[in-house]
Specification:
Helix 2 runs antiparallel to helix 3, helix 2 packs antiparallel against helix 5 and helix 4 runs antiparallel to helix 5. This protein has one domain: Four Helix Bundle (Hemerythrin (Met), subunit A) (Up-down Bundle). The protein is mainly alpha-helical and about 130 residues long. The chain is elongated, with a radius of gyration of 16 Å. The longest helix is centred in the middle third of the chain and has 24 residues. The protein is built from 5 helices and no strands.
């Protein structure tokens, strides 16, 4: 049994969302975590929350990297290369933010996650248009 309604919802959400919707949801979650740290920079828990949010984002992008390296992935080669280059950039920025914490360093990570999520949401809605009245 789940300890909280949120965990139960997340479990159901992860089993019912399409791949693109799930990826977008995870990117939005990561951006929200990073933004919360940035907006509460003076918090006594900042160091732990920064570490947690950066590591979550890094794990997320590591999964994307792994998927793009899979030769059976149906994503076109050019998009795969672009995502891999973006992943390398995210890694570099993440390591910079870990090594030399500064709230401004989170801006680009938040923006990238939000923009990629928006693109994934657009792709998902184009692939699965809602049925009108």
């Amino acid at each position: 049994m789940h300890n909280s309604p949120l965990k139960a919802y997340q479990t159901v959400e992860s089993t019912t969302l399409s791949g693109r919707d799930l990826e977008a949801s995870l990117l939005i979650k990561s951006a929200a975590q990073l933004l919360a740290v940035q907006q509460n920079w003076a918090s006594p828990e900042r160091e732990a929350r920064l570490d947690e949010s950066l590591r979550y984002n890094q794990k997320l992008w590591t999964v994307f990297q792994s998927e793009m390296m899979n030769p059976e992935n149906p994503v076109p080669d050019e998009i795969r290369r672009n995502i891999l280059m973006l992943s390398a950039f995210v890694d570099k920025r993440t390591f910079e933010a870990i090594s030399y914490p500064d709230p401004a360093k989170l801006d680009i990570l938040i923006a990238i996650n939000r923009n990629i999520a928006a693109g994934l949401n657009m792709q998902a809605s184009t692939a699965n248009p809602a049925v009108g009245p």
